[in-house]
Amino acid sequence: MKILNSAQIKEWDKYTITNEPVTSLKLMERASTACVKWLVENNYTGKQFTIFCGKGNNGGDGLAMARLLASKNNTVTVYILETGVPGTDDFQQNLTKLKKKPVADIHYIQGEEHFPQFSYGEIVIDALFGSGLNRPVEGLAQKLIDYINSSGCEIISIDMPSGLYPDESSKGNTTIHATDTLSFQCYKPAFLVGENAKAVGDVHILNIGLHQQFYDDLFTTYEITDTEIIKAIYKPRNRFTHKGNYGHAALIAGSTGMMGAAVLAAKACLRSGVGKLTCYVPKTGYEIMQESVPEAMCSISGFKDYIEITEGLARFNSVGIGPGIGLYDSHYQLLQSVVAQFKKPMIADADALTLFANNKDLFTQLPPYSIITPHPKEFERLFGKTNNDFETLQLVQQKAKEHKLVIVLKGHHTFIATPGGKGFFNSTGNAGMATGGSGDVLTGILTALLAQGYGEVEAAILGVYLHGLAGDFAAKKYSQEAMIAGDIAESLGEAFKKIGN
């Protein structure tokens, strides 16, 4: 699914109004109807609603919702934030409609003395500003937002939580802290970055019938993965194949005390469909690997406690390096040997990324289109600090282009930056995956997919999606608190069945 910025969304509205054709007022009615339908479907019936409206089109949505909710026998009270200027044309028309049918109490907020008293269990609808905001809220509006946030009520924001910018950082701004956000037609960048988590709550995208042709013809910098994207990438197996058709992967992983990382990566690699797997491990890990993952071949490489220089890597279809290798001084020579031998795209994660961060010249020798999978701190060590999540997104994209790498920045909505400039947010996964070893599982998955012949970008998109989906199955079975990284690897079968249906 494409992610549009605020300017593109406005153009989509205009295109729909011109080419459907439909009036802007009727489009507003569609949006309000979709919101009320969501409330009914989610058992918000017979409730007491307090709707806060600004005087823009977001406030117009709120007024239309007030009329529709009242017609369904809900108790509705409307509070309009008075700014001393008339509202937009569509706001004024919806206000007239609401006044013609006196089904809701309407009040105007001109000062703090007009703030309402909240009752237990009432539902607050935030329709103050939506996505039209271009500067921080201040004055009475700021005080009202703080007051609403302190109410203890469930807050449902329409379009966007008020105070939040749709496609730039709102860090430090006063914003509504929504329980749920009901937005229209597509995700906005603001919904997908960690700094806005407290503001947006759970996001629900409602279809209001904007013109499909505009969407189809539009290029966007960002997309969020969905089943359509994944099914276009996924390659079901041909019946007339053998293990040689699915590649031979190598994992360079493990050290004394860290063999669990190697085992997790190996299990995930095998569960992701690779034909053959060879694990390069130190002597201390040989028996561990042979007993834990008997399906994998095993090669002792280097010293008793950690891996030294490996040989014969050119014969493999893919190489993954990093899980549990440690930060030994000799590992700089190990990485130098790996990038000298293996000229195809590889996977680098965990300790390998820390070593690369300490030797930037070596980092530039990574084969083009290699996939690196840093968490935020590892990314910072490689590329430097940023002031907010939007700056980080820009830097990820810049570095992916500059180094010709696929960068997988891990997080709640893991972000995949490609050398061509396109960025993909992942839509699967949950907070239970914030557990030791989860990243090692991802390394195994990506190494397997590259070995099977998936393109680097496609492998990253599919691998991250499968990783998150397996995490969702694991959480369903064990809970987010009780699940561990091994459960993610063991749930990959369910994930593949899901995308293969």
What this model shows, in words?
With 501 residues, the protein is α/β, with parallel strands linked by helices. The protein folds into two domains: 2-215, Rossmann fold; 242-500, UDP-N-acetylmuramoyl-L-alanine:D-glutamate ligase. The chain has 19 helices and 18 strands. It has helices spanning 6-19, 24-41, 57-70, 89-100, 139-149, 197-200, 212-217, 227-233, 259-271, 286-292, 331-341, 351-357, 360-363, 376-383, 389-403, 438-451, 456-478, 485-490, 492-500, and strands spanning 2-3, 48-53, 75-81, 105-109, 123-127, 154-158, 180-184, 202-206, 222-224, 248-252, 276-281, 297-300, 318-321, 347-348, 371-372, 406-409, 415-417, 423-425. The strands form two sheets. An eleven-stranded mixed beta sheet has the order 1-9-18-17-16-15-14-13-10-11-12. Helix 10 (286-292) links the parallel strand 11 (276-281) and strand 12. Helix 2 packs across helix 3 (57-70) and helix 9 crosses helix 16. The chain is elongated. The two termini are 20 Å apart. 49% of the residues are buried. The mean pLDDT is 96.
Looking at this protein, list some descriptive labels:
Rossmann fold, 18 strands, 501 residues, UDP-N-acetylmuramoyl-L-alanine:D-glutamate ligase, alpha/beta
Topology:
Elements: E1 2-3, H1 6-19, H2 24-41, E2 48-53, H3 57-70, E3 75-81, H4 89-100, E4 105-109, E5 123-127, H5 139-149, E6 154-158, E7 180-184, H6 197-200, E8 202-206, H7 212-217, E9 222-224, H8 227-233, E10 248-252, H9 259-271, E11 276-281, H10 286-292, E12 297-300, E13 318-321, H11 331-341, E14 347-348, H12 351-357, H13 360-363, E15 371-372, H14 376-383, H15 389-403, E16 406-409, E17 415-417, E18 423-425, H16 438-451, H17 456-478, H18 485-490, H19 492-500
Parallel strand pairs: 2-3, 2-5, 3-4, 5-6, 6-7, 7-8, 9-18, 10-11, 10-13, 11-12, 13-14, 14-15, 15-16
Antiparallel strand pairs: 1-9, 16-17, 17-18
